[in-house]
Write a structure and sequence with these properties.
The chain has one domain: Roll (Pnp Oxidase, Chain A). It has five helices and 13 strands. The protein has a seven-stranded antiparallel sheet. Strands 6-7 form a two-stranded antiparallel sheet. It is globular.
Length: 196
């Protein structure tokens, strides 16, 4: 049975890739946000695309630094993901005294290998990225393209070049945003075979 979907919700039909956390830093300022629209673009060198709304503080830091980190949060980080996605980093930076989401929420983090943006502890994957300058694309579509310059993953669920969620507990599965703070976790995998 089919039903019509309002065009304003059409993106949700394809929006079942992993939700990501996006961090950025410039000078003493840093921020963290959630993003549901991120995807790989190329293999060698690896490139990604991510939509960063022009109204976000993270975008200001990305524009100033030319860097960002994409992280795949775990099922255990659903509350954190919703919280950083619905909290203003700008308001915290302008508070007296100034602070940020990492300090305000007690978010554990560690230093990246190749960029200044902090990486969040407990995630399943971390991609350090340098922005590919294309200001017209960012201005028109809020879309950033970036080259991945370093990557790490949790070996409990990513090894041999692929994800292994079949036997992973829910807290070690990726979050897939369905809208309104609702997520699903990947279930059992299915191996497809090429037909002759």
């Amino acid at each position: 049975m089919r039903q019509d979907v309002p065009l304003a919700q059409a993106s949700r039909l394809l929006n079942h890739g992993p939700t990501v956390l996006v961090s950025a830093a410039h000078g003493p300022q840093r921020n963290l946000m959630a993003a549901a629209w991120a995807m790989p673009l190329d293999f060698d060198p690896p490139k990604v695309a991510v939509v960063i709304d022009r109204a976000t503080f993270t975008r200001q830091l990305i524009a100033a630094s030319g860097e960002l980190a994409l992280m795949v949060p775990s099922g255990a980080q659903a509350d954190l993901t919703v919280t950083v996605g619905n909290t203003s980093g700008q308001a915290l930076a302008e508070a007296d005294p100034p602070t940020d989401k990492f300090a305000a929420q007690g978010i554990g983090h560690f230093a990246a290998q190749r960029i200044a943006a902090p990486l969040v502890e407990g995630c399943l994957a971390w991609l350090e990225c340098r922005v590919i300058a294309w200001p017209e694309l960012s201005a028109a579509h809020d879309l950033y393209l970036a080259e991945v310059v370093a990557a790490q993953a949790d070996a409990r669920v990513f090894h041999g070049g692929r994800w292994h969620f079949d036997d992973a507990p829910p807290q070690l599965r990726s979050l897939h945003h369905l809208g309104g703070g609702q997520f699903v976790l990947p279930g059992a995998s299915v191996q497809g075979e090429r037909r002759a």
